[in-house]
Amino acid sequence: MTEQNLTIVQAVRDGLYTEMQRDDDVLVMGEDVGKNGGVFRATEGLWDEFGDNRVIDTPLAESGIIGTAVGMAAMGLKPIPEIQFSGFMYPGYDQIISHMSRFRTRTRGRYTLPMVLRAPYGGGIRAPESHSESKEMFYAHEAGLKVVIPSTPYDTKGLLISAIRDPDPVIFLEPKLIYRAFRGDVPEDDYTVPIGEAAVRREGTDVSVFTYGAMTRPTLEAAENLAEEGIDAEVIDMRTISPLDREAIVESFKKTGRAVAVHEAPKNGGLGAEITATIQEEALLYQEAPVKRVAGYDVPYPLYALEDYYLPSVARVEEGIRETVNF
Amino acid sequence: MSVLQRDPQDQVRVLDEDGSVVGDVPDIDDETMVEMYRYMRLARHFDTRAVSLQRQGRMGTYPPLSGQEGAQIGSAVALAEDDWMVPSYREHGAALVRGLPLKQTLLYWMGHEKGNEMPEGANIFPPAVPIASQIPHATGAGWALKLREEADKAVMCYFGDGATSEGDFHEGLNFAGVFDTPNVFFCNNNQWAISVPRERQTASETLAQKAVAYGIDGIQVDGMDPLAVYAVTQAALDKAKNPQEGECRPTLIEAVQYRFGAHTTADDPTVYRDDEEVEKWKAKDPIPRLETFLRETGRLDDESVDAIEESVKEQVADAIDAAESDPRPDPSEMFEYAYAEMTPEVEAQYEEFQALHEKFGDEGFLRE
C-alpha cells in the first residue's frame, strides 16, 4: 500500500474521500462543508470532486441537519452530517437521543441508521466561548449509539471507515487540539480499524493509565518523564468510549494493580468513573491503590485565558500517576 | 401612517447610496445625529484594530463588523435608556452605544469572562455564541417586563440571517406572537452565514415576511442606511411599548446589509464569494453615506470630522492599553463563579487545584 504522511484532519478528509469513491450512497452534509471545505478543511475539495448532491451545504440548523440525516439513513443512504463544533450539537440533541439511537430498536430492525455524525470537540485551541467543551459522555450514556474518538492519523482514517460501514449510528468526535499537531503514516487505500478496541500506546508494568483523544499525547509525555523517575507506566488509548473495551482495561490492570484515568471531560460522570467501576467489578482482588482520575473540573469550561488551568496538563498527569504508584 | 405599515418586500430607505435624501428623515436632534456618526466611525476603527490585534496574536478569534455599523448604531441609538438589548456575538458597535466599554469587548475576545460582566444599568445580555439561542431569551425578557407590568420598556434582540434557519428563531418569535411581548427582533441580514449565502438559508423571498406566519409585523429596511434603520427601529420600539388598538407589540426587522470582512478572523471569504460582489456592497458603505448627508445639511464640516477621527483613535488606543494591561484572570475564578456557593465536589477540586498550583506554579499548567 502507498503511504501518505497526514495530519488527523487530513486523515478525516482522506477517509471521507475513500468511502465516497467506493460507495455512492455515502454523502456529506453540514454548515460550510461544501465550497468552503469545512471550517477546519475536513471536507476540502470534496465538493469539487463529488458535487452538490453529495457534499451539501445546509441551512444553519443542527436539528435539521441531524434530523434529515436520520431520514436519509432510514431510506438507505449513508449520510455523514458534520456539526461544525460539538458545542453546537445540542439543538440536534433531541434527534440524537429520541431517534438516532432508537430507530433500530423501535422498529425491531426494520429501519436502521447507517450514519456517522462527525464533530470536532475539546479544548486547548484558544477558541471563543462554547467552542471547547468535551461532552462525549452525553452520547456514551445513550444506548444505541457508538462513540469513537481517534488520537492518531492512522486510526482516524481506519476508524472513520469502520464507522461509515457500521450498520448502526456512530458519533465520531475529532480532537481538534491535535487536528494538525503532528503527522503520521496513513495508507492511501481503504482499511479499517475496529470500533470498540483500545490500543496500548506504551507498555509498562507499574501502573495503567487510560486515556483517549487529545489527552493521549500529554499522557504519553508524562509516562516518558516518569520513566526517568523509575516509574514504568502503561498507556492505553481507549479509541472508542462506547462500547468500551473492558477487556483491555481489565487485562492491563491485572498486570499493574494500579490505574489512572485521564480525560478533559469533567470528572463527575466522566469515562474515568466507568473505568473505575469496571475495575471494581472485574479485577478487585488485583487492586493495590485507589484509582485516580485526572480530569476537567466540575465547573463550566472557562474562556480561553484560563483553559490551561482546566485541562489536564503533563504535570497534573504525572502527579496523578505518582500518587497512585506511591500509595 | 407608521413606517411599519409596509409590505415586507418594500425596503425602507432614507438615504441613497450617495447620501442623498430619498425618504422621510427621522426626527433626530443634530447632536444625536453627529453622535451616531461618531459611534459608527468608532466601531469601524475599533474593528480594524481588533482584526489587527488578532493577526498579531494579541487576541483570539474575533468576528468583524465592518459594513454593519449603520444597522448596529442606527438601531441601538433608538433604544431608550430603560430598554434592553440581547445581542449575538457581533454587536460590539451596538453594545458600545448601550454603554459597554470597548475594553470589555476586547477582554471577552481575549478570553476573559470579565468581558461579560455587563455594567450595571447598561441593560445588555452577554453575547450568545450558539446561533439563534438568544432569541427565546429576548422573548422571555420581554415577557417578564409584561408580566411585571413594565411593558413601557422593550427588549431588542439581534441575530443574523443564518439564525432564521434555527428552531430557536421559530420558537422565540412564535412565543412573542402568542404572548404579545414587547420585543423587537432585529435581523442583521449580512448575506452570508460564514460561506453559506442567504438564498441557501430559506426559499422565502425576504426574511421579514417570516413575521407574517407568527402573526407579528415584519419590515425590511436598508441596513446600511443608518437613518432608515433608526426610523424603523424607533417605530417598532414605540409599538412594542405603546401598541394602538389592534396592533401587536412584536416586530421582526430585516436589516439588509453586508459584512465587508470575514465571518471571523478564522475564515477566508475569498474562498466563497467574489470580489465583484464585495465591491458592489462597499458602494453602500453606511459611513460615507451618513457623512455626506451630515455635511450637506451643515451638521458636519472638515474640522469636526477631523476632531472625531482623532478622538476615535485615542479612545480605541486607550481601550487596547487598558485591556492588555488588565491582569490575567485568577484561576480561582473558574471555581468561584460556578455556583452561589461551592458544592462539596467543586470545593474539593478547588483544593486539589490549589495544592497542585502551589507545588508546580503556572509552569505546571500553561502550554506554549
TrEMBL record, chain A:
Q: Identify the Gene3D superfamilies for this entry.
A: 3.40.50.920, 3.40.50.970
Q: Which SUPFAM superfamilies does its entry note?
A: Thiamin diphosphate-binding fold (THDP-binding), TK C-terminal domain-like
Chain ranges of the Transketolase-like pyrimidine-binding domain? 6-181
Q: Which UniProt keywords are present, listed alphabetically?
A: Oxidoreductase, Thiamine pyrophosphate
The cross-references to InterPro entries, in alphabetical order and at most eight, read: THDP-binding, Transketo_C/PFOR_II, Transketolase-like_Pyr-bd, Transketolase_C
Transmembrane stretches, start-end: none
Cofactor(s), names only, from the UniProt record:
thiamine diphosphate
Q: A Pfam family this protein belongs to? A: Transketolase_C
Q: Does the keyword Oxidoreductase apply?
A: yes
The record's section on CDD domains has:
TPP_PYR_E1-PDHc-beta_like (cd07036)
Enumerate the PANTHER family for this protein. PYRUVATE DEHYDROGENASE E1 COMPONENT BETA SUBUNIT, PYRUVATE DEHYDROGENASE E1 COMPONENT SUBUNIT BETA
* Protein's UniProt name: Alpha-ketoacid dehydrogenase subunit beta
Which organism is the protein's source?
A: Haloferax larsenii
TrEMBL record, chain B:
The terms under GO molecular function for this entry are: oxidoreductase activity, acting on the aldehyde or oxo group of donors, disulfide as acceptor
Classify the source by domain of life: Archaea
Keyword annotations? Oxidoreductase, Pyruvate
* Pfam families cross-referenced by the UniProt entry: E1_dh
Coiled-coil intervals, chain numbering: none
UniProt keyword Oxidoreductase, yes or no? yes
UniProt xrefs under NCBIfam families: PDH_E1_alph_x (TIGR03181)
Q: What is this protein called?
A: Pyruvate dehydrogenase E1 component alpha subunit
The scientific name of the source species is: Haloferax larsenii
